[in-house]
Amino acid sequence: MRLKTSNILWGAFFILIGLGFAGNAFDMWKFNIFFDGWWTLFIIIPCGISLIQNGFKVSNLIGLMIGIMLLLAAQGVVEGNVLGKLIVPFIFVLIGLSMIFKNLFRGEHGGRIDIKYQGGNSEHSAIFSGGRYQVTGEKFMGTTMNAIFGGVDLDLRNAIIDEDVVINATAVFGGINIYVPGNVKVKVSNVPIFGGVDNKAFNSPDPNAPTIYLNSTCMFGGIDIK
Predict the structure, then answer these.
(1) Residues 179/167, Cβ–Cβ less than 8 Å
(2) For a tag on the chain, would you pick the N or C end, based on fewer CB atoms within 10 A?
(3) Which of 202, 123, 188, 195 shows the shortest CA–CA distance to 157?
(4) Quick one: pLDDT at residue 100?
């Protein structure tokens, strides 16, 4: 299993926080994570990591812009009344971007997307939105999922899984549902931060059954395996 970019970035984020508090202990600097608008980091950081990991996605960019605007307002850089005036034009920009890049928000069949896994992993995110991904009659080779203030469903009940696969998932103020077939085993490695994984999957009694390995981070969010 190779270490995913998201794991490295999240790990670096928590290391920096730890070093910041350690510097306080030795009076090297003054570090305070609870600055004005600190809560906006729960929007900015996941969206920024997703942009780095998955490349340009309109939904990620919109989430990042919203977080930055709220942070600027909380810091007093932008006055609240100015931010209120920007909401209407921002909505029009959002509508325009969603029309141009509508396939990034939903599939061509009303929100249900059939993913084709042919020789590689897939990556997809739901930022302030939702999506359903279904694999039918295709070989599933693993995926990376991100639900940030949104929800993602992944249906693998009709997928072909004949070898061990890895799912890397991040849920931040969002939820992920994963539906697995009955001929597999599921093993979970999770980093819970006011969140968690509920594994209700039936593990195949066959000792040679393929295994789905879930590497996840849940921050004020959750993942259900059914």
Answers:
(1) no
(2) N
(3) 202
(4) 59
The per-residue pLDDT for 223 is: 92
Half-sphere exposure of residue 21: CA atoms within 13 angstroms, side-chain side: 7
Q: Are 197 and 222 in contact (CB under 8 A)?
A: yes
Q: Which of 178, 224, 225, 171 has its CA nearest to residue 194? A: 171
The dihedral over CA atoms of 34, 90, 153, 120, expressed in degrees to the nearest 10, equals -90
SS (H, E, C) the chain: CCCCHHHHHHHHHHHHHHHHHHHHHCCCCCCCCCCCCHHHHHHHHHHHHHHHHHCCCHHHHHHHHHHHHHHHHHCCCCCHHHHHHHHHHHHHHHHHHHHHCHHHCCCCECCEEECCCCCCCEEEEEECCEEEEEEEEEECCCEEEEEECCEEEEEEEEEECCCCEEEEEEEECCEEEEECCCCCEEEEEEEEECCEEEECCCCCCCCCCCEEEEEEEEECCEEEEC
Which tens digit of pLDDT belongs to each residue from 149-207? 888 999 999 999 989 999 988 888 889 999 999 889 999 988 877 788 998 888 888 88
pTM (two decimals): 0.55
> Rounded distance, CA 105 to CA 88, Å?
21
